[in-house]
Amino acid sequence: MSQRLESTSNIWITGASSGIGEAVTRELMQQGHRLVITGRRQEALDQLCALAPERMKPARADTTDREALQAIAADLEAFGSLDMAILNAGTCEYLEIADYDSSIIDHNVTTNVVGTARCLDIALPALRRTAQQGRPATLVIVSSSAWWFPFGRAEGYGASKAALTYFAHSLRADLASEGIDVVVVSPGFVKTPLTDRNDFPMPFLVSSEEAATRIVSGLRKGRTEIAFPRRFTWTLKLLGALPQGLIDRMAASMSRQSRKEQESNG
Ligand SMILES: NC(=O)c1ccc[n+]([C@@H]2O[C@H](COP(=O)([O-])OP(=O)(O)OC[C@H]3O[C@@H](n4cnc5c(N)ncnc54)[C@H](OP(=O)(O)O)[C@@H]3O)[C@@H](O)[C@H]2O)c1
Hints:
Layout: E1 10-14, H1 19-30, E2 34-38, H2 42-49, E3 56-58, H3 66-79, E4 84-87, H4 102-132, E5 137-142, H5 155-175, E6 180-187, E7 190-191, E8 206-207, H6 208-220, E9 225-228, H7 230-240, H8 244-265
Parallel strand pairs: 1-2, 1-4, 2-3, 4-5, 5-6, 6-9, 7-8
Helix pairs in contact: 1-6, 3-4, 4-5
This protein binds NADP nicotinamide-adenine-dinucleotide phosphate.
Residues 14-21, 39-41, 44, 62-64, 88-92, 111, 115, 142, 144, 187, 189-190, 192-195 line the site of NADP nicotinamide-adenine-dinucleotide phosphate.
């Protein structure tokens, strides 16, 4: 039986100022946990902390900036022994193949992979101290299920999340002997400011509150892989099990279709 989140826990969450991170923050706050919350927008962090100022602390930082993260390490330390770090801050930028620009790949990888890796500079020593006291220590990495199928325009985003998932699984192997759990969260489409920008249909879209419920309940159950909604993730898994030639033809046809729709819309 998992001991995670059974008693009041000290949690650091990045990307708390909107979307999935904000909804997870609200849910954990309602369950009585103590939270340090990070994002780049101070006002959004302050508004959230005002909901339970005695249990929440804003720690503004750009997660791609090593010095900015070092500057909040003391806040994290002063908050008490860290039980869980939820590294959720991320971005999604799509590539227009007719206008190929490698900076799209750069932006996705820098925020989603390098930014998450930099957060570990301060989270890992803190989680290690907790594990050494014989208490549950959990590192949660919010990836995506998008990379399970080669979607057109997602070269940068999909590559960043594939790399991030590998990073997390490899960390899981290395940290197992230290008693630190590594959890990978792989959502399908969730309605957030990030996906509000999407100009294509998003099958099985769920609300950020529903996503937060799935994530927190998976964490409480001791899961190390949390993927939802099942209808979407199972469809992707089944598609991914097809022969590569068939996957390539389906992906190319979906890409052509979406470009046609884009052209006719604008
Ligand atoms: N929505 C989906 O359908 C979906 C599906 C699969 C995976 N995900 C993943 O879920 C995570 C959250 O996405 P979301 O949909 O909730 O997006 P969102 O509403 O745009 O939230 C992104 C969060 O990340 C923070 N952030 C972005 N870049 C940052 C940086 N450099 N430094 C610090 N904070 C930064 C933003 O805060 P500031 O703007 O204040 O910096 C914001 O709080 C992402 O990793 C995303 O890839 C989302």
